[in-house]
Each structure stands twice: as structure tokens, then as C-alpha cells.
Amino acid sequence: MSVATTSNLTVKYGTFTALSDITLEIPEGCVGLLGPNGAGKTTLLKAFLGFLDPAAGSGTVLGLDIQASGREIRQRVGLMPEQDCHIPGMTAVGFVAFAGELAGMPSEQALRRAHEVLEYCGLGEARYRNVETYSTGMKQRIKLAQAIVHGPKLLLLDEPTNGLDPAGRVQMLDLIRSVTHGKGVNAIVSSHLLPDVERVCDHVLVLAGGKVRSSGLIKELKRLEGHPVDVELREASEEFARQVEAAGAKLLSAERSVYRIQMPGLPEETAAQVMRAAQAAGAQVRGFHVAERSLEEAFMEALGG
Fold this sequence. Notes:
It holds the Pfam family ABC_tran. Keywords: ATP-binding, Nucleotide-binding, Transport. It comes from Fimbriimonas ginsengisoli. Belongs to the ABC transporter superfamily. GO terms for molecular function: ATP binding; ATP hydrolysis activity. The chain has about 300 residues and is α/β, with parallel strands linked by helices. The protein has two domains: about 1-220, Rossmann fold (3-Layer(aba) Sandwich), CATH 3.40.50.300; about 230-295, Alpha-Beta Plaits, CATH 3.30.70. It has eleven helices and 14 strands. The strands form three sheets. It has a six-stranded mixed beta sheet with strand order 6-7-8-3-9-10, with helices on both faces. The two termini are about 30 Å apart.
């Protein structure tokens, strides 16, 4: 099932085309929205929330039309915007409770949930402080708290680690994982930080120049053509190299005792052939895994770099 879709969606700001004829389906789970600055990531999130009037095409979020049902979508979705969104003079608990009421919660329920989510996000002891006195890390966490206060089934997280130091980034990403994984909560995480997306997401969608450049499971995008494998031996063996080549394999590289091998078959079939070659060469296999590229390499390929 898809949590969001678009069909030939085009969004313009005056004469500038921010999204151009985009057709996509965003699956359930945690999906990373990747792209350089100006790629159209934030515009796509705004379109999903019904804030923009498309020049052409259509879209849905949780089965609701983005043009006809914007208000209902915003009540059922949690948004963590890139920019600070607190209201000066309000305490944290007052602000988060207010966000819950905006989503349609009764005031007493919103206040109770505000206390719960602030505790969950590590802000329990600071809940009665004015938000403008918060540090950058605390402001990021309160943005997450107000996004989840009403129990949405979909979160839109726009640069959730923006401005955080390494420790703060890890804490925020761990919070996102705890909110989404195994709890029936879906998320679209917009970021230009690939390690952050890889830490919390299973799928990615790459945007550039207002167009979709690539999409799919991260593990599939990182897979190398031909399914090569890396084999680590206890020690280097020229005889092993000869044996695998005699079996019809291509030896792509050999560095010390690690061999990258490509065979005309699936990795499971390659494993059996590798073990036979090692046995024939009297070599001991210490490690075997399917070789893959980094997400950054897959991302750059999607951008044409």
C-alpha cells in the first residue's frame, strides 16, 4: 500500500517549475527523500499537505486528494518543518498541546498527550520553560513532539537533524526510529545527509531539478551490476584465483587476501562455486558477502555524476 502518490504532478512558483511532471508512489515504512538544495524536496512536502495549487496533475496522501482534502490531510499527518515553528511566549507543554488542538484533539486530551510526548522526546524536565530559551537540539526535539502529539499515521520530517552536532544527530535519528519502526507509523524523511537517511530509512526517492531521478529499496540501489561477491581468505592464494577463473568467474580485483569475484549466476550459486574453488586450492574462507556500493555512489549515479 502507498501512503502518498502523485500522477504527472507539476508545481510552479510563477514561471519557475519546482516539480515537473512527477509520477510516484511512496510505500509504507520510512522513506528517505534525497536531493541537492533546490531539488524540490520541500515543495513536494508542501504539495502533499495541500498548501500548493498544482499547475497540472494530481496527488493523494493516505488516500485523500491533495487539492480537495488539504485540511483533513493536515489533521492526519504530522509535520516537522525545517524552520523553527514555536510561538514566542509559550511554554513547551502549551505549544505542543496547542498543536494537538489544531489537529482536532479536545483540549484536555491534547494537554495530556503533550506531557507524554515531551517526556518521550526527552524534554520532560523542561516542559514548563518558554521554547525560545531552548537550545538548538531541544528546539528540534520539540518540533518532533508537536508532529507526533496527535498520533498521526504519517510523518513528514523536513531536515530533522538540521543544526545538530554529531551526538544530537544520533539522538534525533534514534528517536525517529523508535517512533516509526514496528509501530505502524510511516515517515517521509527529507534530507541532504545520506548517512542520516540510511540510518532510519528502508526506501529512498532521489529528486533533482524537480524530477524523480531514482527510487527503490536502499539495498537494491546499492547493489552492483552482476552481483559480485567479496571473498576473504585466511591468506592470499594464487591457486584460489586460478580455480575461480577456471570455474568461469571473472576476478574483478584482488587486494591482499580479499577477492572480488563475479560469476554468471546468483550470489547463492556463487557461494557454492567459491567454496569448491577454495577446497580445490586448499584455501580457508574467512568471509563471504555480496559486494555493494555506497549510498553516496548510488546517489551520484542517479544525479548523473
